[in-house]
Amino acid sequence: MRKLLLMLFLYVPVFAVAQNKAVDSLRKVLATAKADTTRSDLYYKLALETQRMDPDGAQKMIEQAMTLAQKSNFQKGIANVYSFKSIQSSYKGEMDMMKKYSEKCIEVARKANYQLGIAKGQNGLGLFYWQTGNFSEAIKNHLSALAIREKFKDTVGIATSLGNLALVYFDNQNSDEAERNAVQSIELAKKINKVNIVISNLQLLANVYGQGGRFEKALACDAEALALCKQHNDMRGLSQVYSNMANCYTAMKQYDKGLKYQLEVLKIDEFFGDKKNISDTYMNISAVYAEQKQFKPALDWMQKGLKYAQESKYKQGEKQGWGALSSIYEQLGDYKNALAAHRKYQSMSVDLINEKSNQQIALMQTTFDTEKKEQKINLLNKENTIQKLSLIKQETTIAIIIGLLIVALVVAGLVYNRNKLKQKAQLQAQMLQHQDMLTKAVIDAEEHERKRIGADLHDGVGQLFSAVKMNLNGLFERINLQRDEDRFLAENTLALVDESCKEVRVISHQMMPNTILRSGIASDLKKFIEKINADTLKIKLETTGFKDQLESNVETMLYRIIQETINNVIKHAQATQLDIVLKRNVNEITAVIKDNGVGFDTAKANSFTGIGLKNIQARIQYLKGTIQYNSAPGRGTTVTVNVPA
C-alpha cells in the first residue's frame, strides 16, 4: 500500500508552509495590526504556515483566530477557522469531526455569502468522502469547489482542486485521469510558485508510476519532491516522499533500503500523531517483511496498522489491511483466520464500489416498485377485511331473524354493494391521485435535473469554451502565420470553437424550460424553432388562442411534448418539411405536428422503447390528455395531442 498524503492545502488559500520569510512577514504585520478582524485573519494565515512543521504552535494560533473572529462577529474568519479544524481532524484520524467542521464551514460561509469559504467546506467534505470510500460524493464535492474557484479565478484553488480530484481517481483505479489532473495541477502550481501543491502532486504521480511498474519515473518524481521538501522544511511532504521511495525500493526487491525509508516515515508520522498515516506506514513495513517471507513480523505490523485504520475510520486502508492480512495468515498456514480476513476484505470491497448513475436510477426504480407492491398488499388486506365483516354480518342476520331472510338479504345486499362500490371508487381515486403525485414528482425531478445540467453547461462548459475562444484569438493575433495552410488551420480551429460555444448555449437553453418560457409557449416555441437549421428542415408554426399564458406546469409539459416530438422528427423521420398547428379554445388545447418523412408502421408503436416516447406518454397522462399517431411507411407522420385547457 502506498502512502497518499492528504492534499489538505486544497482546503485553504495560503500554502507556503514553513517558509521563515513568510512567517516573519506575517508576524511583523500582526505586531502593528489593530482591528480584530485583521488580527484574526493573520493568526489564521500563521496557523496555515506552521501546521506542517509545528502543530502545537499552529493550534495556539488558530485558537487566537477563533477568539478574535467571534469577538468581532467576523463570519469569514469563523468559516476559515472551521476549515482549518477540519484539516486538524483529518490528521488526527477523527473523520466524524472532519465532516462536522466542513459542514459548519459551509453553513457559516453561506450566511456570509463567502463563496470561497463554501469551496473550502466542499473540499473538506470531498476529502472526508474520499477517505471513507464514497468516491462519487468525493468527486461531486470537489467539482462543486472547483466550479466556485474557476468563477472567482482563484488560481491556487483551481490547482489544488485538480490535485484532489487526482487523488480520488487514483484510489478509484482510474490512473489515466489521476495522472492528467495531477500534471495540470503541477503546471499551474509552478506558474504561481505554490511549492506544497507541486510536492503533493509529484508524490501522487510517483504513486501512479510506481503502481504501473515505471519505477524510474516514480523515483524521478520522488527526487524532485525531496529537494523541494528539504528546501522548504516540509516535514509532512518529506514523510510522503520517503514512503514512496520505500515502496519503490521494496518493489525493486531492495528490501534494506525499503525498510530504512519506512522507519524514517514512521518517525515523522509519530511526531505529528497522524493515525491515518501511521496506519499506512505500519502496513507498508508489514509488506516489506512479507516480501522477504518473514511472515510473523509482517503479521505483527499489519495488525497494528489495521487497528489504527479502524480507529481513524480510514476505509481504504482498512480494506487493504484485511486483504494483506488474509494473505499473511495463509502463508502462516492459519487458514481459518485467512478466510475470515478475506471475507472482511470482500465485504469492504463491495461497500467501497463507486456509485454509477444507473445504480441511482435502479434504486429509484426499486423504491417506486416497492411502494407500488405495498399499495397492492394494503388494498388486498382491506378487501379481505371487508369480506370477513360481510360473512359475520350475514351469519348474525340469519341466526337472529331467519324468517325475514329474503327481505334482509335484499336490503343488506344493496347496502353492501353500494358501500363496496363506494369504497372501491374511493380507493381508485386515491390510487389515481397517488399516481398523479408520483408522475408529477418524477417530472419535477427531471425538470430540476434538466435545469441543473443546463446551468452547468452554460456556466461551466460554456464559459470554458468562451475563454478558449478568447485565448485562441489572442494567440493567433500575436503569432505571424506565414503559410496559408497554417492560417487555414487557425481559422478552422476558431470556427470549431465558435460553433461549440453556440451548440453548448443551444443545448443549455433547451434544457432549461422554466428560464425559456417567459413569453408564453407560443412565443418560445417560435424561438426554439428559429434555432433549427432551416436548410435541413423547414418548419412552419401556426398558433391561435394563446394571448394569456397557461399554468406553469401545463405550459412546461406541453412545451416538452412538442420539443421531444420535433427532436424525434429530426432524428428519425428524414423529413424536409414540418408543419405545427397549436390551438387553444375554452375546453382544450390541440397540437398537430405533421412531417413528410419516412413514416412508420403504427401497429408496431407499442414495441418502441425510446426514453423520449416514454417521457411524452408520462406527461400526456399527467395532463389527462391523449396522443394519436397517424403514419405509414413512406407517407410521413401526423401526431395529434389533445389536453384539457
From TrEMBL:
Transmembrane segments: 397-416
Subcellular location: Cytoplasm
Domain Histidine kinase as annotated: residue spans: 558-645
Keyword S-adenosyl-L-methionine attributed: no
CDD domains documented for this protein: HATPase_UhpB-NarQ-NarX-like (cd16917)
TPR repeat spans: 279-312
Pfam assignment, any one: HisKA_3
The EC number(s) this enzyme carries: 2.7.13.3
PANTHER family assigned to the protein according to its UniProt record, in alphabetical order: NITRATE/NITRITE SENSOR PROTEIN NARX-RELATED, NITRATE_NITRITE SENSOR PROTEIN NARQ
Name of this chain's protein: Oxygen sensor histidine kinase NreB
